[in-house]
Design a protein that fits this description.
heterodimer, A: mainly alpha, B: about 180 residues, 7 helices, globular
């Protein structure tokens, strides 16, 4: 074999590749990063969804397009708007596909959306929509608090992030003169969550540095600074 | 409070950055390891460990050349692997093989018999010969980049590459 031919053969060894499943699994192991869904492979599980009759298919497509368009348009709706109900329907549909683990944090995302709506209403001075918007906000807080109280294996980092955003947005809206009120349900749920986390950490082996952070977390908790306490608990769960 | 949140954000950014490095180099490091060890399972373990070690260092300090860094980790892990197994003959650049000459690679389905022979003969070469061939012809690294990895001059690397190809060609032609 001549050198040129050998080099060509060597280059064919580029066919040695890891399997995509192993690459994805390994990425999770190294980084704890979830692989992106392969939507092509998901769709391949539905081979039988092809209509035999083209007219029926075309009509279905038109209706589907209209409904999708309506839902899309509803995303900008505010409480008090006629199509706001569609927005809530799409959010409830999303909840149906969320795991129990992620449910509380998705509910917290919705609380943040209610606050964004309130902010828009306040900025544009749509006075008639303030009352329904506050009602929607209070209802979303109750739902989030209920799911948070029952949470198992929660993604605490996400919870901290969402509750911080809620606190910031609430403060911003109240600075515009709109009184939203306190959130005792959410505070109670956070209190229960932190109590559970503290109980778990009390039986864990901690380094000296971690013990200091844990003591600070307990002090924050006793002072009612639940957000700060949760952040410190998160640091203990994700050590450097 | 703000400092703690910044720390959380920093962790998230670091993770995202290293995820890009992982996506970019996983196939190359995997192939590098597969061509040097005796089983796919061992190759997967060593490759995984390379990235785990890389991630630990990445969290502590800036890495200027992630590719070179990951190759170095992988090389060291392979050397340690054979030391532990007690099957390393000599770890040297003086023409002695680092891999057990009787090892067999399990993933033969992807390659025809010609390529399988080249792969086996490549594994019989010494470490530096293997590396220079893999890095230049399979991973498309320039002579300059390979020289940097080997800690040699460009001229010395060109000579090494020529000798490596010649050694491989002799082994393949002797079949």
């Amino acid at each position: 074999m001549q050198e040129k031919e050998l080099i060509c053969k060597i280059k064919e060894l580029r066919n040695i590749k890891p399997s995509q499943n192993w690459v994805a699994f390994n990425k999770t192991k190294v980084l704890g990063v979830k692989p992106k869904a392969n939507w092509v492979s998901v769709l391949e599980f539905f081979p039988g969804l092809i209509y035999k009759h083209s007219k029926l298919a075309f009509a279905s497509l038109i209706i589907f397009g209209f409904v999708a368009g309506a839902f899309g348009f509803a995303q900008g709706a505010l409480p008090g708007d006629p199509i706001y109900a569609l927005k809530r329907v799409s959010e409830k549909t999303r909840l149906a596909f969320v795991s129990e683990r992620d449910l509380p944090n998705v509910q917290l995302e919705f609380v943040n959306k209610r606050l964004e709506e309130l902010n828009t209403i306040a900025q544009t001075k749509q006075v008639k929509k303030i009352a329904p918007a506050i009602q929607e906000f209070q209802a979303s807080i109750s739902r989030a608090a209920k799911d948070l109280a029952n949470a198992q294996n929660l993604d605490v980092a996400k919870t901290v992030s969402e509750t911080k955003k809620i606190a910031e947005k609430k403060h911003k809206i109240e600075s515009l003169g709109i009184v939203i009120g306190d959130t005792p349900d959410l505070d109670s749920a956070l209190l229960l969550l932190i109590q559970r986390e503290i109980k778990d950490l009390q039986v864990s082996s901690l380094t000296d540095e971690q013990k200091t952070i844990f003591a600070d977390a307990v002090a924050d908790f006793e002072a009612g600074n639940y957000s700060d306490s949760l952040e410190k608990i998160l640091m203990l769960s994700n050590p450097q | 409070m703000v400092g703690q949140l910044s720390y959380l954000m920093l962790m998230a950014n670091q993770r995202a950055e290293f995820a890009k490095i992982y996506d970019k180099y996983i196939a190359k490091i995997y192939r590098f390891v597969v061509l040097k060890v005796s089983s796919i399972e061992v190759a997967q373990d060593l490759c995984s460990e390379s990235f785990l070690k890389g991630w630990e260092v990445f969290k502590q300090e800036k890495i200027d050349n992630p590719q070179a860094f990951l190759y170095r980790i992988a090389r060291n892990l392979i050397i340690d692997h054979y030391r532990e197994k007690g099957r390393t003959q000599i770890v040297s650049i003086d023409g002695l093989p680092i891999v057990d000459a009787n090892s067999r690679i399990e993933e033969k389905a992807a390659l025809n018999s010609d390529l399988e022979q080249i792969k086996l003969k490549l594994a019989d070469l010494n470490d530096d010969y293997q590396n220079v061939i893999i890095w230049h012809y399979l991973d498309d690294l320039s002579i300059s980049e390979v020289a940097n990895l080997l800690d040699r001059s460009e001229e010395a690397t060109r000579v090494l590459l020529h000798r490596a190809l010649e050694a491989l060609r002799k082994d393949v032609n002797s079949l």
